[in-house]
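Quick start: what a row looks like.
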Amino acid sequence: MRISLIGPAASNGARLPLFTCPVQAGFPSPADDYRETSLSLDELVNVHASHTFLLRAQGDSMQDAGIYDNDILVVDRAARPLPGDVVIACVRGDFTVKVLTFEAGLPVLMPANPRYQPIRMHSTDELEIWGVVSHSLHRHRFR
């Protein structure tokens, strides 16, 4: 899966209504009492930070991790990458998004689609972890 840089995230401070009762993904819940509060998407995805960038995903190698073609990725360049994190990596001059794992002490970039092979790094390979994906924005309506 390739990525393209959209640019640094910019904050506008807008707050949106947030209902405090969750929406049931299974059977509907009987009439819940709810309260309305507000939520800033800027705060939720940390877009006010100078180290937060937006990138667009291209391809299907991360679909089993919920990242689809043309999704927007929120990337934190200041986060320390940990095993299991979805990362933006630069491998041999090309950027990709994969899950960071390790085998025998060496990094392995794992796709989240069985049709793709892992990228196993060797001790002589150059790898830069550009940032950690903190959120992805997926479009559900295409009209």
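That is the whole record. The domain at 2-9+50-137 is CATH 2.10.109.10 (Umud Fragment, subunit A). The beta strands are 2-8, 15-19, 36-40, 52-58, 72-76, 86-91, 94-103, 106-110, 119-120, 127-137.
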